[in-house]
């Protein structure tokens, strides 16, 4: 039995592996820091093998090691760009949670989040973990893998040509949408806290002898927790929307390469 592998076939698979591995290392869910590095390498290898078998890619002709090294750098750049874009979309949850905590007084209660390597508030971590749980349970993470697999159809290996003005304009355009989506997620709690502030302001004017500061802190916490318990039912919709947004952003980014 002949077990030899053609050199060009091996080189093509290595380029597919580079793009997939760099994507897996920073993408949401797959690149979470709680996942063991060996598991990430195994996932990258298995996904690369499946993509390579399905697409059967070929690389352009080259004559020197430097040219092949440039192919590797380009594939790594594509994988990192796609992975960071997906992570950037998921970071909307952290911003929305911080908006909510600022309104209900939980800003000082922070915890270290391994996925982003920074301190985040309680509600931000709650939204992040709940959405990731819904994504995994409902198989919405296939959106991310589908976008990665589609990148090999639209951007053949070794043929990357990044259009920086196109990518820059789309990234700048998404930054405004980034804040808009985060504020919409936090809108129910924000409106509830605003209405409570109005009521407390009226009561403070009508009854100056009452200590509205002490009462207001407790009412904000109770109102915020009540609204959070109500908005939990919208988490599946939020997860589905963010996965669709990730797929759209990745498709837009791929269009500029």
- Strand-residue proportion: under 5%
First-to-last CA distance: 41 Å
* Helix content estimate: over 70%
Largest sheet: 2 strands, antiparallel
Shape: elongated
Placed side by side, the strands forming the largest sheet appear as 1-2
As residue ranges, the low-confidence spans are: none
Count of distinct strands: 2
Number of helices: 9
Structural class: mainly alpha
**Topology pattern, helix = H, strand = E:** HHHHEEHHHHH
Q: Rounded to an integer, what's the Rg over CA atoms?
A: 23 Å
Give average pLDDT, whole number.
78
Keywords:
single chain, 257 residues, 74% helix
What can you tell me about this protein's structure?
With 257 residues, the chain is mostly helical. The protein is built from nine helices and two strands. The chain has helices at residues 7-26, 37-55, 65-90, 92-104, 122-137, 142-154, 164-206, 212-231, 235-255; strands at residues 110-113, 118-121. It has a two-stranded antiparallel sheet with strand order 1-2. Helix 6 (142-154) packs parallel to helix 9. The protein is elongated and about 85 Å long. The two termini are 41 Å apart. The model has no long low-confidence stretch (mean pLDDT 78).
